[in-house]
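Entry 12.
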Amino acid sequence: MAGANITKIGHGRTRKTRVKADLPSRKGGSEGDRYLSPDERRAEGKALRNTAPRAAHGEWKAPRDRRDPIDVLIESNTGRVPELVPIRFGRMLQSPFAFYRGAAAIMAMDLASTPRSGLTVQACGDAHLMNFGGFATPERNVVFDINDFDETLPGPWEWDLKRLAASVVIAARYLRLTETESARAAIATVRSYREHMADYSSARALDIWYDRINIERLLGEIESDELRELGKKRLEQARQKSTPELLFPKLVEHHGTLPRIHDDPPLIFHPTAEQAPGLESGYREGIAGYRASLSEHVRVLFDRFHFADLAFKVVGVGSVGTRCMIALFMAADDDPLFLQIKEAKASVLEPYAGKSAHSNHGERVVVGQRLMQSASDFFLGWAKGVRGGDFYVRQLRDTKISPLIEDWDVDILRSYGRFCGWALARAHARSGDAARIAGYMGSSESFDDAISEFAMEYADQNQSDYRAFVKAVRQGRIQAVVES
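Predicted 3D structure (tokens):
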């Protein structure tokens, strides 16, 4: 079943309130508007199989002219902080799974050569299973959703689903599960996406946008009492870790009466004027630009805080080397606000899906996030750097719950994959045509099997690319620093 607010409707029923289809241009007025029922749009989606059969998605074979993946990785370092690039590669060196997390540019290149249904959505661009998790909404509820949008761009919905399914297989191999268990976990993920998309295809448009995957409901669907209690414990830990009482003393030290973010090089450090040219002005221009991107009512709240300090912070895998920072703002001595500021570069999908409609890639990320997430951070906004870099801003660690897969077994992986498939379907249904997508996939397991086959074969490709990456490090072609 889809989210709690989704009205269940049998696939054979036609709702009287019809959904507006893509329309040809017209001179104005409502005359000439054309509406198609969900059944009609599902039929149109099914017809797309004639040009892109579902079975065609079930294979991966590298093109003869495929670029050297190491060249693609080196090229993706353009504009990154040179001193941090070896840390990025060191993190990718840990395992084929870690490599996959940092190799979105390679897979974007590969996905461009695979079949397309012709239906587009606001795509995440990097929908691997580690980019899903829990976080707090502005109403202080905790939801499960996609939580990384650095690569978001309008694109084929299949690309996100294939990247997610492949990540499940690669994670299964990392956990030393059997090939049969790996394939079944991928199938469970795709089936969840397909079945929830079928539910969304018959839902009212507003119900799709109201729908949220509340963490309590998600925990309720876990069959194992032990796993359910573990999930509740993780939730409580995340809530405690994000409170100012714990976060402030962990990240901040005082120099006299002035609070200052604690240096912990090479992962947290204060930038030089060369690294952060806004330093000399106290980042006045950047803060003003960010403030202007906020809604007026949020500006009232933001204006209660005053800038105190800013430091670089190395985060993630794929993001390492881009300019990522944490900024401390204070409303009073015991009233801090931590914001995470991340540099936004062109999406890895852009060479294959087209340029962004937004001149500022920070705005691209924010708009994509708001389109795909059921609820976005209160302080989500964007800005322009002094030297022209694009940035987006959000709160740091707002009850964020990230997966820790090291101790997972096949049952946990399959359950988590199903949750990710559900969240991805809900995100795609907001910007795309759920009925056409559902019609294309159908009600049988044919599409599930095809994507699972692709995921297994692409996991082999990732393993091959990882071996080439390790070889490049050993030969000194690229530098990697493994953190202790």
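Annotation: Residues 446-474 form the longest helix (29 residues). The chain has 18 helices and 14 strands.
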